[in-house]
Amino acid sequence: MSRATGLLAIVGLLLGLAGLGLALPAREARADVQEAVIQQIAPPPVAPQVAPLVAQPVRPQLPPPVADVLQSGVLVVVSKASQRMHVFKDGSHWGSSPVSTGKRRHSTPAGVFPILQKRVFHRSNIYSNAPMPYMQRLTWRGIAIHAGYVPGYPASHGCIRLPRSFAKALFDLTKPDRTTVVVTNAPLRSEQGAVTLALNSQAPAAMPAAGNGVVMAAATSVQTIQLAAALSPAEAEAHWQGAVAMYPQLASFEKAVVPAVVGQRRYWRLRASAPGAHALCGVLKRSGQDCFNVI
């Protein structure tokens, strides 16, 4: 005889006795016995099966290529050595500002960064809830551009601090999908040098661990521009020297003087090649200089 069958038999006996007035006269007592038997017979509830949570890999976000934002977008170049920031909007110099980058043992990482997140009001979840107004996040590990104390030397825990007015203006200017931030260890002595350094920063580099938001952009293919069609090699060389003096970033380009015959006349075409050359050509044209893209 099973346990459940035995319990049912006992219940029946008890109920029969109750009917004779010999046991359990109270209706409540009979209900208690029935409930106890039901609990013994009923199978225990089965907990629902919940699928274990699987962490999804975080894909690092690539910043727009420097050459692209120089043509249409915002390029931010930060020199840790000079403690200075240069900002370019659509290839034209928009503004410069002193900065304060990471101090010793909290160095600001160098590299090419996207804007991952923007918040007007933000507090650090790492350093004592410190305020970070006009925060523009560069990495998910705590590196950002924001308003803060700028003493003239590296003093932060890795972030790039700006004077409040400049931080607000920059916050209003940038759009995450059209902004690239280049942080370099090298000193910058001019705005033109900042553009050159940013264009050269796109050399291939190993991808970092997923999730830190810091990436180096893929190498940009070499582009060629034409600066002049001279009547002699000497004239082409003189034009090159003048262009380099006015735009020092051209010094890093590969120069070529290509002879050509148009009709009955011979010319020497002055050309220059480098990654991002088309973007620089746009800057030259906006400054009133002759330039056009070749390849």
UniProtKB/TrEMBL annotation:
Pathway: Cell wall biogenesis; peptidoglycan biosynthesis
GO CC term (a single one): extracellular region
Residue ranges of domain L,D-TPase catalytic in the record: 74-184
Record Pfam families: YkuD
Matching Gene3D superfamilies: L,D-transpeptidase catalytic domain-like
GO BP terms, alphabetized: cell wall organization; peptidoglycan-protein cross-linking; regulation of cell shape
Keywords: Cell shape, Cell wall biogenesis/degradation, Peptidoglycan synthesis, Transferase
Catalytic center residues: H146 (proton donor/acceptor), C159 (nucleophile)
Superkingdom classification of source: Bacteria
GO MF, one annotated term: peptidoglycan L,D-transpeptidase activity
NCBIfam families: PRK06132.1-2
PANTHER family referenced in this protein's UniProt entry, alphabetically: L,D-TRANSPEPTIDASE (PTHR30582), L,D-TRANSPEPTIDASE YCIB-RELATED (PTHR30582:SF2)
Family note: Belongs to the YkuD family.
Identification of the protein by name: ErfK/YbiS/YcfS/YnhG family protein
Source species taxonomy: Bacteria, Pseudomonadati, Pseudomonadota, Alphaproteobacteria, Sphingomonadales
